[in-house]
TrEMBL record:
Pfam families given in the database record: Fer4_17 (PF13534)
PANTHER family xref list: IRON-SULFUR-BINDING OXIDOREDUCTASE FADF-RELATED (PTHR43255:SF1), IRON-SULFUR-BINDING OXIDOREDUCTASE FADF-RELATED-RELATED (PTHR43255)
MF (Gene Ontology): 4 iron, 4 sulfur cluster binding; metal ion binding; oxidoreductase activity
Source organism of the structure: mine drainage metagenome
Protein name according to UniProt: Heterodisulfide reductase subunit C
Record GO cellular component, one term: plasma membrane
Keywords: 4Fe-4S, Iron, Iron-sulfur, Metal-binding, Oxidoreductase
Gene3D superfamilies found in the cross-reference section: Alpha-helical ferredoxin
Leader sequence segment: none
4Fe-4S ferredoxin-type domain sequence ranges: 48-80
Matching InterPro entries: 4Fe4S_Fe-S-bd (IPR017896), 4Fe4S_Fe_S_CS (IPR017900), HdrC_iron-sulfur_subunit (IPR051460), Helical_ferredxn (IPR009051)
Amino acid sequence: MVAHLPHRTLSLTEEEAAHPPAMELTGRRRMSPKDRALSETLFGEFHQDPRYREYVLGCLNCGECTTGCPAARFYDFSPREMLQIAATGDATTLWDALQEKIWSCCQCYTCNMRCRFGNDIAGIISVMRELSVRHGLEATRKTLAPFGRSLTLLMTVGTQVSADMIQPDFFRDWGPFATGSDQVWGVSSEVMRKAIPLDVLQTTRSSWEVSVQTSLELFRIYEETGVLDMLRGLDPDLTEMLVDIIEERREEFQEARETYRAALETMKGPVATFEG
Ligand code: SF4
Ligand code: SF4
């Protein structure tokens, strides 16, 4: 007897499991049908982002942006290429850029200053990053995995590097200019640290010391703007840890406020008597 089962459309994952797909070779890697579908979605979202029209204005291909880019000096990366991908690339080239290259940029905005077309190159790279984080791309998870400690500091105290951390031992990846002597690109690192004018920013301890209220306000921004939700999709464990930290601070803040109110009430007694 043959059972007549209702027809069911297989999901892409099941389909792939049943019939391993012929992989499609993009410029840098092989792409499965599932990734191909996702790349089309990302491409659509990227071009519909309201910032796209504002940031991408055209390109002369002059390369001025790349000549001043610190990331281009050390990595296989160029802001000119990023802008070209944004302006004329297809879903595949965007997908390739989202895998790795977008994370080479240090968001210094030098490229924007140099671009005679007025492109916001650093801005469009940020839009690409948001896209990759929002969709929890596997490559993005791997790229950001070692930065849990930095993210924790950024999201709880608002900064993670202080002036006194600018030392050769802390930045070995800067290469021989930084690690071979106490010089960073020909300038004493001590001089560089002093270039930051506020004394309070000179030490790690003072940089990481923020009031509970500041910490809570900062975290509220991450909650209200959807950053926390994006992070949850990327790293749920880290997100839960951050939420726990902030919940503790909220309780701490609430207790401090109640103590303050009680103290005010105590003070009101003699004042009221005096006024009376
Ligand atoms: S913002 Fe990024 S792409 Fe632009 S110059 Fe700085 S590192 Fe390079
Ligand atoms: S500086 Fe502007 S116009 Fe020139 S290559 Fe870069 S993005 Fe294009």
